[in-house]
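Input (structure):
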């Protein structure tokens, strides 16, 4: 049979894109029912995140910041679109090529889905059904594009143009065929109108499936459950924040970081939607009595409130990945005492609903500090992005070894027997926070007016506390900054210092000393493997 080479390439690309769109829309719809992490685009992105080496992760975080996930998903979609267009073009030559392309496409998605933690066979359903419907759409659009119907005249009269070259697809005769075939031709012709109406139908189906998939995907349910949470009062309230904790200087990070301004770092391409009614925390491993807690049981335990500054190990010197919030939760130590820790255990391996894991030293959690299974942040139930319904918060440890969001499982174990998510990816197994100080105002590169100006920022040395902050200009004498008050050693501390700025270009440096008398090292180190060091240094122009 004649094989449609009369249809132009754009038609093939359109057929491919629309079929791909329908495949993804249907996959999303099915994923909403099976589990959002089984959506193949997300699974492929997740695999990319997990496979990317530490330097690439750092590059992504520093280059794209908190948009790194959108950039990744966008990248996956662009590649998919290109492949889909190519599949479409090939399909117009021979449908079998298109089917083969789709099958390959589906295989990649299915493998990605199956390699996710806790994946089951059913998790490939969104990929398989999506690809099947995509394949059907592809053949349907190809038929429309290539005028499957014969004209009335053609049904009777045998065509005379059909010759040996018609058996193949790229015969020279094809090239000369007019785009619209003459009546009487038995050959398939490019039918632009039918292609476009078919494609429009495909776009509608793809869009409707995707929208419905999102709605069924659980967001609404969990948002509603979150809004419905009634937070109990803490048995141990936080110390009141001293009036002098916030210097109220323009441009300086506020003492408490608002939830919507709080940095977010995690490996989750789609935020796990955990319904608190289904949530359970399982504590097992080296314990006398394994414990299982429901959300209601957790809320029924004595609650502690604490102001704690979280910090990410990926934060560069002077970077933005630190935030301070008031957390409400149950002391991890209290829950662990219920279970009864066995001797020899030195690691708490926590797992989130999406399979991410953290390894936290037992001694740190049990030493009396306010290490919490937190349920609230700044007076509201945890935002979904920050771990609703329950996350860990451990003062003094970087988030990657302590702050598991959407936590569902805690295995009491040993560092020499288990490994957490980031350890095989080039990050240290243990991550105590390194003392840091940051200049918030002025900004590096600012142009200032000569005269008296304020330099201000924050410093942190969680669980030890900041005792001094010093600033020097142009490598001159170190001068003591004025320190704001703090409620305890677990939060950052604001500081400020006045400076008589003379015209010219100036370098400003800052360093902090913790309550144990240790001054921040000048030695520069990158974030990997266990946290950046060095003094935050900025330059300003004074006129
Ligand atoms: N489930 C889960 N929890 C996680 C992570 C993650 O990738 N997945 N990242 C950790 C890291 S590296 C940090 S710095 C903190 C950040 O918490 P935030 O996003 O609430 O600021 O969460 C921690 N908890
Ligand atoms: Mo982090």
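Output (sequence):
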């Amino acid at each position: 049979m004649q094989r449609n080479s009369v249809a132009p390439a754009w038609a093939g690309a359109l057929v491919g894109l629309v079929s791909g769109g329908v495949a993804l829309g249907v996959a999303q719809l099915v994923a909403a029912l099976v589990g959002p992490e089984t959506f193949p685009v997300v699974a492929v992105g997740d695999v990319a995140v997990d496979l990317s080496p530490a330097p690439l992760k750092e590059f992504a975080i520093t280059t794209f910041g908190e948009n790194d996930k959108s950039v990744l998903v966008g990248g996956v979609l662009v590649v998919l679109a290109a492949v889909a267009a190519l599949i479409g073009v090939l399909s117009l030559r021979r449908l079998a090529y298109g089917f083969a392309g789709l099958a390959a496409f589906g295989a990649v998605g299915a493998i990605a889905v199956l390699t996710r933690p806790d994946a089951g066979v059913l998790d490939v359903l969104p990929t398989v059904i999506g690809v099947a419907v995509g394949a059907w759409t592809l053949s349907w659009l190809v038929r429309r594009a290539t005028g499957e119907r014969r004209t009335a005249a053609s049904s009777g009269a045998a065509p005379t143009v059909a010759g040996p070259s018609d058996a193949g697809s790229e015969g020279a005769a094809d090239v000369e065929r007019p785009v619209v075939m003459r009546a009487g031709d038995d050959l398939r012709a490019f039918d632009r109108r039918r292609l476009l109406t078919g494609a429009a139908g495909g776009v509608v189906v793809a869009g409707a499936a995707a929208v419905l998939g999102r709605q069924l995907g659980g967001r609404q349910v969990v948002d509603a459950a979150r809004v419905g949470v009634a937070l109990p009062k803490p048995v141990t309230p936080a110390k009141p924040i001293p009036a002098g904790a916030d210097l109220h200087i323009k441009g300086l990070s506020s003492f408490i970081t608002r939830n919507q301004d709080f940095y977010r770092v995690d490996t989750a391409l789609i935020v796990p939607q955990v319904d608190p009614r289904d949530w359970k925390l399982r504590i097992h491993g080296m314990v006398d009595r394994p414990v299982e807690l429901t959300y209601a049981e957790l809320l029924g335990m004595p609650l502690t409130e604490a102001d704690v500054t979280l910090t990410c190990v990926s934060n560069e010197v002077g970077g933005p990945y630190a935030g301070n919030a008031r957390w409400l939760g149950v002391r991890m130590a209290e829950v662990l005492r219920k279970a009864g820790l066995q001797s020899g255990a030195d690691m708490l391996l926590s797992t989130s609903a999406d399979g991410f894991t953290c390894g936290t030293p037992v001694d740190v959690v049990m030493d009396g500090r306010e290490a919490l299974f937190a349920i609230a942040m700044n007076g509201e139930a945890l935002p979904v992005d920050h771990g609703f319904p329950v996350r860990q918060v451990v003062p003094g440890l970087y988030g990657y070894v302590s702050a598991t969001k959407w936590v569902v499982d805690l295995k009491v174990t040993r560092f020499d027997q288990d490994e957490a998510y980031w350890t095989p990816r080039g990050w240290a197994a243990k991550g105590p926070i390194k003392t840091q100080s940051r200049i918030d105002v002025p900004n590096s590169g600012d142009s200032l007016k000569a005269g008296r100006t304020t330099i201000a920022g924050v410093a942190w040395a969680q669980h030890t506390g900041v005792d001094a902050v010093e600033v020097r200009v142009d490598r001159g004498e170190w001068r003591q900054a004025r320190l704001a008050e703090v409620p305890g050693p677990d939060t950052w501390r604001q500081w400020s210092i006045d400076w008589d700025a003379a015209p010219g270009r100036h370098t400003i440096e800052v360093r902090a000393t913790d309550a144990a008398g240790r001054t921040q090292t000048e030695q520069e180190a990158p974030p990997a493997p266990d946290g950046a060091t060095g003094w935050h240094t900025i330059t300003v122009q004074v006129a």
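Notes: Residues 240 and 471 are 29 Å apart (CA to CA). Residues 259-425 form a domain with the Sulfite Oxidase; Chain A, domain 2 fold (CATH 3.90.420.10).
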